[in-house]
Amino acid sequence: MKIEQPIDKVAASQNQAASKLPPSMVKNTKKQPLWNQIKENKIAYFMLAPVILGFFVFTIYPNIWVIVLSFTHYNGVNNPQFTGLDNYIRLFTRDPLWWKAVTNTIIFTLGKLLIEIPLALFCAILLNNAKRKGSRFFKSVFFLPNVVSIAIMCTVFSVLLMPVNGYINGLLPSLGMKQIDFVGSSPAAMLTVMGVSIWQNFGLNMILFLAGLQGIPGEVYESAEMDGAVGFTRFFKITLPMLSRMFQVILMLAIIGSLQVFDIQWLLTAGGPSDSTEVMMTYLFKYYFPPSFSQNAIPQMGYGSALGVVASIIIGIVTVIYLYTSKKMDDVY
After folding, report:
1. Are 131 and 185 in contact (CB under 8 A)?
2. What residue segments make up the domains of the chain, in order of their start?
3. What are the per-10-residue average pLDDT scores of the chain (333 residues)?
């Protein structure tokens, strides 16, 4: 009884204080109609309106229009002509170059990520110690390619990698090596595009890994050292598990970005030589904006839209599989 009386007094005092508040400050537990909620929060909705409007105008509407165009024959000038599933039948049965582009995209994604992600993590671990000399300098240097314009970057690499007068091929004979056609020969072109893409993107992933590493408490490492966990044991038993959430986010963004790659391939090789670096986005781009020297110089926007829809489905399937696999791994570990 001695304990209950103070509790009753506190509750009574809270009720009295609430009764003295203005009606606008008293929390209404009843569910209000949607229009009343909008009126009460009209300033917030007004500030969100440009973003919501832009989302519908520049994202939802174009996607719906692309899906509609995928069932038509449209050259960008005449009115679209409904053709049903003809574009999709052509895509799945009569266009082997599209599936070669899909294969090249998967090869590019796997080869790039197998080097880029471990390299970014390795550099992040090396630079995680703030007391290490030159750590700030190297962070800036590694992140700089992500800031430079891709057009400028590819122009510089085109000059460096020229087969005859390029700076790199000019150095190879002095090292006793033969000159290499980096962007004009089939095996080397894909490796070159992978290398340029890794050089551009691994700095951003390194910064994200650094953010995750700096979020791990130092006390955890001190306790591990007291228990004798050092070197690789500490990395695999402490660092990697505590970095798993950040690792999953980085890998998901890297996968999606690699599957959507367009600019580096287009600016360095334009999908050549002999379609060896052709990826999904460069291939469908040529149907929207065909080069003047190509055999099909007339735009085929209906077929290009069908390619875009299928490319989006492929990227979505890969993303869902990755998220499902990541969830299963979380359940195991």
Report:
1. no
2. 96-332
3. 48 53 51 73 85 91 93 90 94 93 95 94 85 81 90 90 84 85 88 94 93 86 78 82 89 93 92 90 91 71 94 94 80 55
Residue 269 has a CB neighbour count (10 Å cut-off) of 23
What tokens appear for 216 in the block? 């791990």
**Bridge partners for 72 per DSSP:** 82
Q: DSSP assignment, residue 111?
A: H
Query: What CA–CA distance (Å, rounded) separates 203 from 140?
Result: 9
Closest to 66 (Cα-Cα) out of 286, 311, 329, 317:
311
Distance CA 255, CA 319 (A): 8
Whole-structure pTM value: 0.82
Q: Using CB atoms within 10 A of its CB, is residue 200 exposed (0-12), middle (13-18) or buried (19+)?
A: buried
Nearest-angstrom CA–CA distance, 74 and 28: 56
Which two three-digit tokens encode residue 70?
């995928």
* CATH of span 96-332: 1.10.3720.10
Q: How far apart are CA 117 and CA 243, in angstroms?
A: 13
